[in-house]
Amino acid sequence: MLEFRTQGFNGYSVKYSPFFDSRIAVASAANFGLVGNGRLYILGLTPNGIVAEKWFDTQDCLYDTTWSEAHENQILAASGDGSIKLYDISLDQFPIQSWSEHAREVFSVHWNLIAKDTFLSSSWDGTVKIWRPELPNSVTTLPTHSCTYSAQFSPHSPSVLSAVSSDSHLRIFDLRTPASASNHLTLKIPIHAPPRPKMGQPSPMGVPPSEALTHDWNKYRDGIIATAGVDRTVRTFDVRAPGAGPMAVLPGHEYAVRKLTWSPHLSDVLLSASYDMTCRVWTDGSAIGAQGPNETPDPMAYGGGREMGRLNRHTEFVTGVDWCLFGAEGWAASCGWDERLLVWDVRQIMAPGVQKF
Amino acid sequence: MANQTGRNSSAQNRLAQVGEHLQSSGPKGKSALLEKHADDIVVTAALRSAITRGRKGGFKDTMPADILTGVFKSLIERSKIDPSLVEDIAVGTVLAPGGGATEFRAAAIAAGFPVSAAVKSLNRQCSSGLQACVDVANAIKAGMIDVGIGAGVESMTLQYGPTAVTEFSDALEEVEESANCKVPMGVLSEDMAKDKGISRASQDEFAAHSFQKAVKAQKAGLFKEEIAPLTVKWTDPKTEEEKEIVVDKDDGIREGITPESLGKIKAAFAADGTIHAGNASQVSDGAAAVLLMKRSTAQKLGQPIIGKFVNASVVGVPPLLMGVGPAAAIPPVLAKTGLDKNDVDIYEINEAFASQCLFCINELGLDQAKINPKGGAIAFGHPLGCTGARQVSTLLNELRRTKQSIGVTSMCVGTGMGMAAVWVAE
Fold first, then answer.
1. What pairing do the DSSP bridges indicate for beta strands B118-122 and B88-92?
2. Architecture of domain A60-321
3. Nearest chain A residue (CA) to B16
4. SS3 for A98-161, per residue?
5. Which tens digits make up the pLDDT trace of B1-30?
6. What are the record's GO terms for cellular component (chain A) (predicted)?
7. Beta pairing partners, A216
8. Is the residue at B12 inside a domain?
């Protein structure tokens, strides 16, 4: 395991470069992101450990970052003052572009993986905005009317995007639909809805709505999205069957889940990062043979998924986690309020018997 | 300045937002329990005397107050606490005439506590020692005192006998459940074993296992950490000669006990009964003490923190089903602390009788391997008032040794009650 200290700055988000296997960006904030400056770290994995190749300081806290899919040196940062900044890491100090439209904290930014000239942002102001790097203003604004912690483009369709927000709903927008009063909203799935009861079994427990903090599209199975948030539970949904309720319910985290990310290599594996100071690796139970011995079935659990291991090394809230796209499958990086970036091998925490890492 | 005001209110908003993420999850579960807070009630020392056999063991000629004095002295010595900081001492005891109030106060003074340290005795039967710890913890939590000691002592050699229960009035005898309160433990446990279908063979197996675990633990020196050796006067029953001996190990632990060897013993309470001396707790003498304070106090005083007290429960059950007490008391304390039964690493459940302990384990569906890993009262004895405080040192030492964290102590209580407490080793 490798480690880098983001001295004086509490991590909020970590992203591997889609171009280089040795480059990692960390968005961070002083004073736990409550008040003060932000810093975007560009880190390099070298034979001598992790080194800060560059950093950009900002006036307000940074909450998220995403690499450009089109240009290997460009990266976005989401700021607490409502601005989004585009940096070129071959330049120093200042962003090459800045957009200020959101009225409150921008909490997520995401680059379109297919239409690589587009990115989006979501904010506590209750909107998702679509942007093009060359335009000074946003292209489209999609209201969610509630604090939107996470938004993403589908990896399968350039015009489909999703958002989860504090109203406990997963929204799907399709930009191909005609502009109308619905603002391209095509689906609104209640995350807290219980799974459909199976024949001959008691109906699953209902839970109250709670804030959804993170979600991610499966990279292999079109239409599969994982969500998680304040209710400590990871769920997966199939947006092609929106009324069916969750396909998998994975309880286990002891505090709210802050970040989810599906494996870029395996269709059933995902990583989560939580306020309970752990990162956990899960299978959603969709792969054949993935279902293991479940000694103590949680009454909430559903769909045959299970936790396969956890990283216990963080000493504060874990806020970000990301998979490395390259090399041996299984490398991941995580960041948290303990001012540490950890780079580790997921397979190591999955090995039987060493669950506690 | 306007700008600054704006920033402050935005910081407030952000704090509230993040706070909500945590609040909805509630302060529950294992990770919440393992958090360290300044107002936690922590244990900085927990120890006990050896537990010795009634009428035959090392403390047979020692007054209970003297065992207690010895334990208090060791507690001061080991913890290096300034005795003048201790504000209250609660001592659980069951059989002492007058509740032991007078001699325990004297024992505290003799042990080196200044007259400013208050002392009380209390009696909740077999859970008195735990009740003493809980009372002190609660007094600290409420801010009444800062540093206190929960303790327990019993000399069943000197004070066990028919005078332990007062005659019942007609008014009590007329109410059936009231009258049931004085049915002797052995008799009602026999009925309960029959009622709940706990077989003689399973009881003997459980009891033999308790002995075997205790023998193994004693040989490995696992009790050394928790036992304070005491030097006492002892009269040799053969020669009538009085000599000074050091009592530093539980002398009720016997080697070579097997289910088969226990199977030969005649039942004690009914001709066709299942309970006998080998599968019930031993009659014993001993004392134990636990030093409690807030985490902030411990840090200020430089006291080593070995564990913390989390919460406790006490529940009444029908007097004739006294033995089900732990099965009734453990679920509520787990619910209060937001724990699942599998989150608990070790359960110290007092073995008053193999029958009732086994019933509770089965009823709760607990993992046998987590129960009394160093043996229990069947192997080394159950000095009534001492047991609850004794379990704390047994539990915390074992949790720390095995690098585990969460433990539960529990026992059934005469007249039909159960008590349980959750502890965390650090």
1. parallel
2. 7 Propeller (2.130)
3. A34
4. EEECCCCCEEEEEECCCCCCCEEEEECCCEEEEECCCCCCCCEEEECCCCEEEEEECCCCCCEE
5. 344 445 557 888 888 888 888 865 444 577
6. cytosol; peroxisomal matrix
7. A226
8. no
For residue A163, the one-letter residue type is: A
Instruction: Write the CA distances from B136 to B32, B124, B132, B149, integer angstroms.
Output: 23, 15, 6, 7
Q: Determine contact, residues B250/B218, Cβ cutoff 8 Å.
A: yes
Distance from CA of B252 to the nearest CA of A (A): 38
- Which helix (H) or strand (E) segment holds residue B263: the answer is helix B259-263
Q: Are A232 and A255 in contact (CB under 8 A)?
A: yes
Distance CA A213, CA B24 (A): 13
List residues in chain B touching A: CB distance below 8 A: 7-8, 10-11, 14-15, 17-18, 20-22, 24-25, 29-32, 340, 342
Among residues A209, A99, A202, A187, the alpha carbon closest in space to that of A142 is found at A187
Given B133, B276, B357, B382, which residue is catalytic? Answer: B382
Q: Which of B10, B28, B405 to mutate to test the interface with A (most CBs of A within 10 A)?
A: B10
The range of the structural domain enclosing residue B393 comes to 39-160+174-425
Closest CA to B136 of B128, B145, B127: B145
Which band of pLDDT confidence, cut at 50, 70 and 90, is reported for residue A189? very high
CA distance A233 to A226: 10
Least confident of A193-207, A313-327, B348-362: A193-207
Residue A34: which of B11, B29, B340 has the nearest Cβ?
B11
- Give the CATH number, domain containing residue B235: 3.40.47.10
Q: What share of chain B has pLDDT > 70, as a percent?
A: 96
Task: Give ipTM to 2 decimals.
Answer: 0.81
Taking the C-alpha atoms of residue A232 and residue B225, their distance in angstroms, rounded to an integer, is 40
Q: Is residue B293 part of a domain?
A: yes
Instruction: Determine which helix (DSSP H) or strand (DSSP E) holds B421, and give its type and residue range.
Output: strand B417-425
> Which residue carries 């001996």 as its tokens?
B245
